[in-house]
Amino acid sequence: MAAVGGAAAGADGHVVLEAADGGAYASLRRRPTPRAERYALGRRLRQQVPRSALGDWTPPADRADVVDQVVDSHAGRVDRLVPVRVARMAASPYGFLRGTAVVMAADLAALPATGIRPVVCGDAHLGNFGFYASPERDLVIDLNDFDEAHPGGWEWDLRRLAASIWVAGRQNSATEDQCGDAVASMARRYREHVRWLAGEPLFLRSFERLDVTGLRTTASDRSLRSAIERAARRARRRVSDRALPRFTEESERGRRIVEEPPLITRLGAAEADQVGTALDDYLGTLRGHWRRLLGGYTLVDVAHKVVGVGSVGLRAYVALLEGSSADDVLFLQLKQARRSVLARHVHGESAWHAHQGQRVVEYQQALQTVSDPLLGWTTVAGRQFYVRQFRNMKGTIAVDSLDAPALTDYAGICGRLLAKGHARTSGASMIAGYVGGNDKLDRALRRFARAYADQTERDHQHLVAAVARGRLPSEPGA
């Protein structure tokens, strides 16, 4: 089904948000479609796309080979790091799911969808929710990965989250019924929260957030509350000054980042100079206050540091900056941004975004209630990057430590956060009208998640077999 409405582009061709009802968001002198009409439109979409259809998954006969897709995704990556990426995906079905957003995007693009397209995360698996510091240094929890963020079907995020819950549940020895309960909890909380937010004033909707205090109150399971406390303590310690002894050492040339090949490696002089120039350019993407503040720091060292699973092999730098004294330090991360895996399924090969780093930053700010104030973008040797704080109280709930009741509780919290993100951009009233107040969506996603978890396990085994045959290189333990 075609998208409801179109995309609004700025003078530079960069798209920030997709309008759900044409050009209504382009002028303050034009009244948008009333909320009641948008809600009714969402309800009518059930006639074209029954909610039960969101539970369908049967691999098509012409489905692209998974290993071929993984190999294709390695194009443009650092060759020596490809074995690290493969090993992390081969380690478990959940690791495979994390690293293959491109595979799932292709699968989801062919499935029934309403055509309501807010900004979506694009990679909303269970591990991409986590803690970080607000600009006021409060510890909050929200979506925290936006490399694939893009206007797209809200159903895509729900399906990916649902599948990841089932895969993680199996990995944690949950029964099939328990996995289903966790998925249903996520779907129910998503429905309830998007329906509530759709009734709130637009301005107030933008301030909805969940900090660690609210998270403790929201969590009903005792073991989840304990996991939250552990994760919050770890997150509060993940700041730049505490990272100093872990990642650096004193040398005759001053403090330097310590090499840990292949995960942390030094740069040649020419590449280091290119990164320094790019950081100067990045300053121009910050708001005035933060640009002036950061201008008081000096770049003293930079290195390449491997991060994540899906991102392994893309360029990712960590930069050490010093302020007015040797213990006044700040780490920045520059992470390569490429075209979202959703893009070709939304608008083909035409370009919507002049700079992929800018895309990541602006969609992150659209989906999160509060964001890192040092988010910006730059270009290094023709490659596009976004920039953020490297140590900003980031942390995650250890998914592999959650028993079945805790997983069900946490899945519901993630459903709520996903609803909040979608409702901040566009289409909340239509989504609310479509999902309704009963459990039809919950049951559909439960059915989809189980079927796609089976698919993920088959695909993972296919990858493992390709490694065993020598078709894919693998470097376990890195």
What class, by secondary structure content? alpha+beta
Please give the order of strands in the largest beta sheet. Answer: 9-10-11-12-14-13
Low-confidence stretches: 1-22
Helix share, percent: 40-55%
Tell me about the biggest sheet?
A: 6 strands, antiparallel
What's the gyration radius in Å?
Answer: 22 Å
The rough form would be described as globular
The overall strand count is: 14
* DSSP helical segment count: 18
Integer average pLDDT: 92
Distance between the termini: 43 Å
Question: How many independent structural domains?
Answer: 2
Strand content: 5-15%
Task: Walk me through this protein's architecture.
The chain has helices at residues 35-48, 66-73, 82-90, 93-99, 101-109, 154-171, 176-198, 202-205, 212-218, 222-237, 240-247, 269-283, 288-294, 343-347, 356-367, 404-423, 428-435, 440-468, and strands at residues 7-9, 15-18, 119-120, 129-133, 139-143, 150-151, 248-251, 254-257, 264-266, 298-305, 316-322, 329-336, 376-380, 383-389. The protein is α+β, with helices and mostly antiparallel strands. It folds into two domains: 7-58 and 111-234 and 399-468, no CATH class; 237-389, no CATH class. The strands form five sheets. The protein has a six-stranded antiparallel β-sheet, with helices on both faces. A two-stranded antiparallel sheet has the order 1-2.
Can you lay out the helices and strands and say which pair or pack?
Blueprint: E1 7-9, E2 15-18, H1 35-48, H2 66-73, H3 82-90, H4 93-99, H5 101-109, E3 119-120, E4 129-133, E5 139-143, E6 150-151, H6 154-171, H7 176-198, H8 202-205, H9 212-218, H10 222-237, H11 240-247, E7 248-251, E8 254-257, E9 264-266, H12 269-283, H13 288-294, E10 298-305, E11 316-322, E12 329-336, H14 343-347, H15 356-367, E13 376-380, E14 383-389, H16 404-423, H17 428-435, H18 440-468
